[in-house]
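pasting for the record
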Amino acid sequence: MKKFISKIISVITAMIIITSCIPLFSVNAENKESKLIALTFDDGPNTTTTNEVLDILEEYNAKASFFLIGDNINAESAVTVKRAYSMGMEIDNHSRTHSNMSKMSAEELKAEISFVDEKVNEIIGENTKFFRPPFIDVSPSMYEAIEQPFICGIDCKDYMENVSAQDRADFILNGAKDGVIVLLHDAAGNNKTVEALKILMPKLIEQGYEFVTLTELFERQGETPKGNIIYSNVAKYPCSNYKLYEEIKTDATDRISLDKDMLDELGDKYAIELDYESATGYPPIVALQRWSSTPSIWHTIQPFYFNGDKAVFLAEDISSALKQLELSSSELDGISVSAYSGEITLKNAKVLIKSEETQFIKGDVNADGKFNISDIVILQKWLLSVPDVELVDWKAADLCEDGKLNVFDLCIMKQDLKSGEVNLNKVYAANTEELKNALENAKAGDEIILAEGEYVYSGSTSKGYMFKSSAEGTEENPIIIRSENPEKPAIIKGSSTSSNIAFSVFGDWWEIRDLKFTNSQKGIVLDNSNHTKIIDCEVYNIGSEGIHFRDNSSYCLAENCYVHDTGVVSPGYGEAIYVGSAKSTTGYGFDCHYNTISHCKLGPNVAAEHVDIKEYTIGTIVENCTFDGTGMSGENSSKSFVNIKGNDCTLRNNIGYRNGCEKILRAFEQNNVVDGWGQDALVYGNKVYMDVDTGSTGKKMYFLNSWDCSVTVWDNFMAYDGELFSVDNEDDHWKYYNCNMITYGNK
């Protein structure tokens, strides 16, 4: 009984402590979690339609964003712009002339943008924040020249006279989702759009939508707008709980097709995902159409998610379009996904299907699949009304199960954590000493989270190791170190490019994510570290090699990493990624097997090879990487993108650019510096741009230098100063493969 009373007293005491600093109030979470929608208007300003749109927005106390054409701004229309700004509207950029900008020079592009900015600044004292390309036509040169984020939106065809006001409203109502951007036009005389607003505004309000500007939409959704993206919504990737149903094979580079039988079978539970290498012009679209000699396109649908190299279309969007058109799926032979204008080059196309719903975890308010201290912090800030703090899943915090969130829910969360029901595995570091302590005390399951800023090592080091850890993770509970904000990565910085290693790991099962490493002799070194992953990291301004899998480190991964400017002190040892150790090296184990280097960007200014795979290593894979040869030194026999000295290596689907670097004498080479090693490589699906014929030994620029090394090749291509051509011609392979133990594989 005494123990029970003591426990009750401790709980009451805890509540008193908590309530002394947190107001005791209740908030209806459902009301706070309103759905957001951003209305945007193109082609103004004018003194007629723009004002009519503003009248409706004012009636419903709604905010919107207006994309202005510079040549439409004059003394009269400027008054309308002032009115819009005074009402809390956002003023944005739609170019000066509303011309097709994808073919313009950088100077012309900047002039189009700056003209509008100057005009707007004269009126409201601010520059524009976002840019909408005329005709939604984009190009890489536009992304490079224009700093503002690019905005698209769901299209209601309100630029077409034959589309009624009701149809315009229905298009928007059917496509409305939390975080969506709506593309409308307030051009002079567009009366049907004014009438459409009168129809849809009360209906959207009835559905729980709040009308916000683009800036507010990004802020409240917790997203930072990025370059090389054209936004139609501000929402998280929608297919996290989907699984692969079918990978679509096609010979076309810009189009896939889906038959109606499969769609009928899947209902509304599928999504189409496109990964592509490049895209110019309008983003890819879904086209609803009949198959015939001249297919009739009924309707086009923009991707729900579009980030520059990935586009996702949801079945529910396709279904809503069919409903709007009063068509059933049986009336169509199928749908196609294609480029509306411009060109796209597909890497792959997939049909995804919804998997079973993920398990609900009480307390997991940030929906990361765990209930831990971070959920406590978020709920506490939310209860205190800290700005920009939102709950991803408020119901997970309703531990009292009363439909409301208050301090009592917070007390229960803290008690659950104290009772040991949940592991407290998040370790936050905001300075160098905190990072050193976190690494020294790390254990399996820890997640070390670094705040934005630089972490510069000071003090004495052991054998040149600066930030280091020998802690061991496990497969179930790896040790993770990452940036708190991947958009603003923390920087781990050494003391000099002439000495020391920035970051060293001596234990198994680590994940190193979203970090930058710089200003040291070596960047990241793994010693006796197996199953460690280095993902989305940047390594640069390094005296010697960038990343090194060393001393019996196997089954490791470098993925989506950017390594450049290596070998700034010792060019001959300035590899981007180094696997194993040379035969002359002592003190380190040679067994660095089955490591993978995937989707990495290596170069420019990698002074030695981009990847050096040493003797005594087995099974290294280098795939889907890009090599920039600019700045290779040629020192210490560095004269190729990749040098293979190990066995059973795979080199596939990479792209190399010599970029005029005369030190690069061959694309990839394989050497047997130790008897029995440098054998049985697989080299396929690679593309190399070699600029010129070197004339070496009377041959053109060859692919491999592997006279006494066995290799199997297929589907490799090369270009000198023109188009790519196949190098897999057995009749003249000596021009390209300097090898007498070559086998041609399946093509």
